[in-house]
């Protein structure tokens, strides 16, 4: 199956040196389809069959996180420094269920548990550009847009009530083109309703309006629908927000915090 970023979905970088001084790292790029399948266990999705792209890196034990980021940028042919500086690597710790960013100027191996022999990392946006729809680098745009789509469906953004229906329609058109079917893919509609902060009760009219607007966008091409969605997202107050959790050791309680770019 093809990747949204090219024909092959697996690439490998080798760094010079002895094999004993190296370790493998699997870096995954943002992918809405994979996000929906893994996080929400949805199997019936109106996507063309794309796979999440993974880049396999053979890293030196002394390599900095920044080295890995640069290898990925090189492989993806992203050369625009204004956007390439926005990317980072995150790691999900399966033991404590916490996700954290890796410091780019510290050895990657020092930041990952020793038990992780072949760590899996996520290559994504750390600093969100103020005008995301104006990015001209196609690969960088794809990564950014996929991350914004994932953020939207994960309720990262606080959507103003007057934008709920329009944004939802652009989301459906921009992600699924003309393949969305309200009867077969009702789970996605329910996810959208939850993502924009509405309860499932008394939302039938809103769902009907979303479907109506989605059908009205039939003549809009995929790229235009994506640009419109991202443009409107970039105008809301919570664009550029990152969720993270802090655990109070004394009380063992979880405090959810927000970080803005």
Automatic annotation (TrEMBL):
Per its UniProt record, what InterPro entries does this chain match?
Answer: Band_41_domain, FERM/acyl-CoA-bd_prot_sf, FERM_2, FERM_central, FERM_domain, FERM_N, Ubiquitin-like_domsf
Q: Which domain of life is it from?
A: Eukaryota
Ranges of residues in domain FERM: 43-261
Identify the PROSITE patterns for this entry: FERM_3 (PS50057)
Q: Which residues form a coiled coil?
A: none
Q: What is this protein called?
A: FERM domain-containing protein
Species whose genome carries this gene: Rotaria sordida
What phylogenetic lineage does the species belong to?
Answer: Eukaryota, Metazoa, Spiralia, Gnathifera, Rotifera
């Amino acid at each position: 199956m093809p990747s949204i970023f090219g024909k092959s979905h697996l690439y490998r970088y080798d760094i010079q040196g002895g094999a004993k001084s190296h370790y493998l790292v699997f870096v995954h790029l943002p992918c809405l389809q994979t996000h929906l399948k893994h996080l929400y266990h949805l199997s019936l999705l109106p996507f063309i069959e794309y796979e999440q792209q993974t880049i396999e890196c053979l890293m030196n034990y002394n390599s900095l996180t920044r080295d890995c980021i640069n290898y990925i940028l090189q492989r993806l042919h992203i050369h625009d420094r204004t956007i390439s500086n926005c990317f980072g690597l995150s790691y999900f710790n399966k033991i404590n269920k916490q996700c954290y960013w890796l410091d780019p100027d510290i050895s990657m191996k020092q930041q990952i548990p020793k038990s992780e022999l072949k760590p899996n990392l996520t290559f994504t946006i750390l600093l969100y550009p103020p005008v995301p729809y104006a990015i001209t680098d196609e690969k960088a745009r794809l990564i950014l847009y996929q991350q914004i789509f994932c953020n939207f469906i994960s309720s990262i953004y606080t959507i103003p009530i007057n934008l709920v229906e329009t944004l939802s329609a652009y989301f459906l058109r921009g992600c699924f083109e003309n393949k969305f079917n309200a009867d077969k893919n009702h789970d996605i509609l329910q996810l959208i309703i939850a993502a924009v902060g509405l309860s499932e009760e008394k939302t039938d009219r809103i769902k009907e309006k979303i479907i109506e607007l989605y059908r009205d966008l039939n003549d809009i091409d995929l790229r235009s629908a994506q640009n419109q969605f991202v443009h409107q997202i970039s105008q809301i107050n919570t664009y550029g927000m990152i969720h993270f959790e802090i655990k109070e050791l004394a009380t063992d309680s979880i405090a959810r915090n927000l970080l803005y770019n």
